[in-house]
Automatic annotation (TrEMBL):
Zn(2+) binds at residues 125, 127, 178, 181. InterPro entries: Carbonic_anhydrase, Carbonic_anhydrase_sf, TAT_signal. Belongs to the beta-class carbonic anhydrase family. It comes from Hypericibacter terrae. It catalyses: hydrogencarbonate + H(+) = CO2 + H2O. This is carbonic anhydrase. The keyword Metal-binding applies. Its EC number is 4.2.1.1. Its cofactor is Zn(2+).
Amino acid sequence: MIVSTRPDANPLGCLCQEHCLGHPETSDSLSKSERNALYLSRRGLLRSGMAAGAAGLLLGAGVEMAAPRTALAQSTMSPDEALQALMDGNQRFISRKMTSDKEDLAILQANTVDKQEPFASVLSCADSRVPVELLFDQSIGHVFVNRVAGNIATSEIIGSIEYGVAVLGTRVLMVLGHSSCGAAKAAITAKAVPGQISSLYRYIRPAVDAAGGDLVKTIQANAEIQARLLKESSPVIAEAIKGGKLKVVAAYYDLASGKVALLG
């Protein structure tokens, strides 16, 4: 590589068009396209070196860096293994020993641009206090999440979940209720509300009746009822269960402790 000896040369050497490729020893012998290609390749080398140097500095400073986990291969996972992966992640969340927050998001994004391979589907409430990927310590591409107030199985939600099962190949489907659910509270009181909020009530009403109006029991019963509805109303889900490719469970998330407990 020819390094410019001009007094105003870039101190990084031969890495910019103005100083390096304008040098008399190179400019006359290269075409414009060749000069541009050389410039871009050298700039790429510089960026790679800077990235490596930054990583070295982080490691030298004692900053822990985790290699990004690849999307879990559903084809080799059993439904029980997929469920265990969720529960293990929740335990890491509870103990604050999470691993997904140490992964390189840029690499994760790049690895999932062309495809997604989630191992789990989760139907959860839209409540802002229930961040599904976070509480299961899962990163980009691992969980196919459907969220709606009251974690109810409407026809649109069922269609979305069927896509996760039939096309994406998720191995476990969890219906996740949570403590202090506002949708459940509203369904219990059945007060008049503006707009279409009351349209949620009819999906949760069976749980209200089964639980006698108790909030926690209503939330838990609702998760179980929605899980049963998914199994009974969807031929796609039923077929996956019959073939041993899918497990459907109901669960309850406690906001205070962070713990997800299986129901039934």
